[in-house]
Amino acid sequence: MVSPIRSFIEADALFNQNGTSLNLVRGFPGKGIKVWGCRTLDNLPGSPWRYIQTRRLVSYIEAHITRLGRAFIFEPNNAITWMKLKGQTYNWLHQLWLKGGLSGTQEERAFDILLGVNESMSEADLRAGKMIMKIKLALLIPAEFIELNLTFDARTGITGLN
Length: 162
Prior knowledge:
alpha+beta, Nuclear Transport Factor 2, Chain: A
């Protein structure tokens, strides 16, 4: 048998120590032992990264769009390639929005994709062989966006976040 580290009476003192969030491990009758909570250690007011679900969804979106972009790494870095990648990304984000993964009653309040010179990259980025995509996502509140910057580098074949 495992005994608790703190008694129930002392548990109130654990909340908001040093201003951080805690996800307690608790036993629930009939359900077993569960992690109770969903917050990260980022406890800044208004921070989109306060919740584990937000981080997990953004990581999933980054991974999927990075996979989409890898197909275009060795394509010419021009408007046609940007339109193809932007279209595939749009279709995927649109489906995610329809399934309820993004907030907003209209697409433009749920996500936005920027890809092109003077939108997401400069002429210097273009000459350096970089294709940079900026994606704005409304995860918690419509029209309040988390911005992702994905870079696809044709010279090295490496993709990554900025």
